[in-house]
Design brief:
78 residues; mainly alpha; 3 helices; 77% helix
């Protein structure tokens, strides 16, 4: 564990020592794929959890139900 912590500290110091533009590029290049991976995993986990709870069927039934049409008001002749 100490090796990983030491390696991570070295990477942090290297990135912090870079000028702004290369630092921004390195952080952007690292964080965009990581963010997409986290979003993908969360999507799959939540989809599985909602499926297990039956929440996806309720939403599908509500979406499949036809929307109620507004009632028309007929005016009486005076």
């Amino acid at each position: 564990m100490h090796r990983i912590a030491g390696w991570w500290d070295g990477v942090e110091l290297w990135v912090a020592g870079l000028p702004f533009v290369p630092q921004f590029a390195v952080v952007l290049a690292a964080m965009v794929p990581v963010s997409f991976a986290i979003a993908f995993v969360l999507d799959r986990v939540l989809r599985t959890a909602l499926h297990a709870l039956g929440r996806d069927r309720i939403a599908a039934q509500e979406a499949a139900a036809p929307a109620a049409q507004p009632r028309r008001i007929h005016k009486k002749a005076a």
